Amino acid sequence: xxxxxxxxxxxxxxxxxxxxxxxxxxxxxxxxxxxxxxxxxxxxxxxxxxxxxxxxxxxxxxxxxxxxxxxxxxxxxxxxxxxxxxxxxxxxxxxxxxxxxxxxxxxxxxxxxxxxxxxxxxxxxxxxxxxxxxxxxxxxxxxxxxxxxxxxxxxxxxxxxxxxxxxxxxxxxxxxxxxxxxxxxxxxxxxxxxxxxxxxxxxxxxxxxxxxxxxxxxxxxxxxxxxxxxxxxxxxxxxxxxxxxxxxxxxxxxxxxxxxxxxxxxxxxxxxxxxxxxxxxxxxxxxxxxxxxxxxxxxxxxxxxxxxxxxxxxxxxxxxxxxxxxxxxxxxxxxxxxxxxxxxxxxxxxxxxxxxxxxxxxxxxxxxxxxxxxxxxxxxxxxxxxxxxxxxxxxxxxxxxxxxxxxxxxxxxxxxxxxxxxxxxxxxxxxxxxxxxxxxxxxxxx
Amino acid sequence: xxxxxxxxxxxxxxxxxxxxxxxxxxxxxxxxxxxxxxxxxxxxxxxxxxxxxxxxxxxxxxxxxxxxxxxxxxxxxxxxxxxxxxxxxxxxxxxxxxxxxxxxxxxxxxxxxxxxxxxxxxxxxxxxxxxxxxxxxxxxxxxxxxxxxxxxxxxxxxxxxxxxxxxxxxxxxxxxxxxxxxxxxxxxxxxxxxxxxxxxxxxxxxxxxxxxxxxxxxxxxxxxxxxxxxxxxxxxxxxxxxxxxxxxxxxxxxxxxxxxxxxxxxxxxxxxxxxxxxxxxxxxxxxxxxxxxxxxxxxxxxxxxxxxxxxxxxxxxxxxxxxxxxxxxxxxxxxxxxxxxxxxxxxxxxxxxxxxxxxxxxxxxxxxxxxxxxxxxxxxxxxxxxxxxxxxxxxxxxxxxxxxxxxxxxxxxxxxxxxxxxxxxxxxxxxxxxxxxxxxxxxxxxxxxxxxxxxxxxxxxxxxxxxxxxxxxxxxxx
Amino acid sequence: xxxxxxxxxxxxxxxxxxxxxxxxxxxxxxxxxxxxxxxxxxxxxxxxxxxxxxxxxxxxxxxxxxxxxxxxxxxxxxxxxxxxxxxxxxxxxxxxxxxxxxxxxxxxxxxxxxxxxxxxxxxxxxxxxxxx
Lengths: 446, 478, 132
Prior knowledge:
The structure holds three protein chains of three kinds. Chain A is α/β, with parallel strands linked by helices. Chain A contains 13 helices and 15 strands. Chain A is globular, with a radius of gyration of 26 Å. Chain A starts with 7 loop residues before the first helix and ends with a helix. Chain B is α/β, with parallel strands linked by helices. Chain B folds into three domains: about 60 residues, no CATH class; about 260 residues, Type I PLP-dependent aspartate aminotransferase-like (Major domain) (Aspartate Aminotransferase, domain 2, 3-Layer(aba) Sandwich); about 120 residues, Aspartate Aminotransferase, domain 1 (Alpha-Beta Complex). In chain C, the strands form two sheets. A six-stranded antiparallel β-sheet of chain C has the order 1-2-3-9-8-5. A three-stranded antiparallel β-sheet of chain C has the order 4-6-7. Chain C starts with 9 loop residues before the first strand and ends with a helix. In chain C, strand 2 and strand 3 form a beta hairpin. Chains in contact: A-B, A-C, B-C. Chains B and C meet through helix 14 of B and loops of C.
């Protein structure tokens, strides 16, 4: 395909204006031995051929009719209006709104996103986005070390294992120490050098934690230690208490559940919020409301840019530039489309349907629910044989739950099951059928 | 903003609707029976707005926004080229959008990741890739962490990094995030790296390497590039290539041949994926073989068994993002490379440079061109000879009145009053002539009616905004 | 552009001014510096009691388009900070030598006062910078 409008006549005319006679002369500054003599790339494809080729590749992925897999990436219904809005090319073909007067549309949308996120989470300020939940959590940890001027981060058990790894990598980059602990050992781990405690709730295993209890524990031990909470499926905020009500300092979420398709794990959306007092140490873009210099109209503008890399350079607390703006727009549209009524219903169905499956599994011999705390849409089950369960799910066209030993090798035959509003009653019955069939197969083999 | 664009984010329809929720086909359970009451929220302060009102709201907002699909978008170093529509269709194929990152049957997605790595390898000359970084800056961080790990394992104390003063702000910021301190080199009068300063800095022995983009942010190809990378290598350092300016080099010249060890690419610049108003992007990293063990994991590599995922290598810097990377963006870039092929990419390189020089030659008749030499894909003007103390900002705001977007302003920092222009290859000659006409008119206006510029813009939905107020008294949400 | 260079003050080449009395010194940034920065939007002040060496960054001054550092002209302890500029950072622009003062220090090495430069010497430095 060729998207270049020039014909040879035009090119010749332009060369003439420049004062050279060939395109090769444009590269006079490049030493001759660096010029590629022969390309090894294949020839291009036209649109129909390209489409056919890519369709074939896409069919090599299996798509199931129902899913029981979550673990940081979720199947929720995406209202059609979301794609409608992010397909408006005035939005998606624009870039960072540096010229505010010509970008009021997008600036207003991101401001609305910041507003809704703030309302939903009850956190005082929200930025325009970070790359995803995992990197946002890592940047929150770094932000905490800058605010407190301390260099140790504590990770509470239950954080998504991939998120933990990302935090560790980022912290290694700046010689920040990492410690891990459980809720029981937390008090003993906190010391004068602890910058922040990181907690996930609902956690990786599905448990809804009592975050205000943790906050209390930490504040009792140290006045200058931040609490950072992360969440991988924020649809739960349709029914669960907002993080801001538990006095945490920074709240992070993976926003993929807000109108972004799973898409093999990316792009996602790093939702980043904090208490107002940390505003000037916050990474990422911020949209503010202001007035015209010589007028009364209100408008929107990128603000507090002096925090960012293009001004502060090596003194910036983060290097982030391009973020996930279009994904924020998707999330905004999603939240507005659902409204409080819709989001509450979605969250409610997630809890109820997961609970239904839990209750039915409890009745099956050989299966045990491992969670001791209440759960949102994910929970752990111990199985007689997890491979048989996986196999049986696939036979019934169900995307199987996560085999937890992928991350926790000591936890054998344990599955992390996810149920969302997209799981029909039928699919839940099919899962039970699969579980029974797996049990039977195990019994037969013994 | 006037009432036609404002949306009431409180209240709304008392009852709301459940249009987007499947019907509950199981027995209803009281939430209080599942979750303790103290963990359930009392109210949910989101508005209930009908679909028709939302559609109108967003259509109105989109009409107050400017994209490449509206007109020329000459932002320097951003490569605002046309975003092919077929890529939007391909990215939305259910086989791609409905696949979970942790599912087994993912051959299609892995094929995309593997094949694009091969193509990017051919384009850049690098041996191994990671596609995980979510943006250029993220890629920079990854590349620098690789450098850090490399010297750590060798047991060498190398904590400094050389960066020219023309570098994009993400370079020093990324360096800091990877624990390096910066040695800044002052570009010489040709806009190139001063070799003597470079030698001097490298001789100290504690420099891990250099971060460069070539052509640089002045649009200048540093002719001594091989000498630069040789000096760094001879003194035990590594060379990092910021790929933001790769567009003019496509199938013309490879970063590997210039001597670079690590390269990041901006798929949302060079490879046509949409900028999205500020993302999502994708910033893959390519490295030479010797550095491939340091790549973040999981890492796609090819073995006799086919495409596999490498994990658990103890030299790896670790994981830098959950899952695989911005797959939706990667698949668009892959489609783009397949669509253009070798000849198409070369044409991109050539015409991007043709277009930039065409504009340069025409605009330098009026505007000051600090580095007066032929450029690659972009060039930088300054406001030095604009009459009546008209600044670059005034010019940029007046450009908006003519219905197009302004170039990058006040960057690179080494040119006071910089106006950085990159047309890209997808602007027609007519579009360029139109831009020249506008810039010429504005120069005349600066002479004859400077106040018009000082108070610009006049024709946009909103006039010049008070950035000072926004920063002194930030209002970040309603 | 006519910048002010009050004669009775002392200066540093890094654009700070100093008013010395006895064992204390009041410090701010010069008219030239505030003009270079543009409209100041925020000043990040140190805490009282903090001790800095001469030349180190004690205060960060943010404008819309830039960030500048106030470097300690003399080694010492911060004994007072100008609370007014927290809510009204524009004072640093409108009155850099008076209401826009930034910190007061109890200096520890009086000999460093001799290393400060005069208004005239500072003016020459600013002229050189403008030519570049």
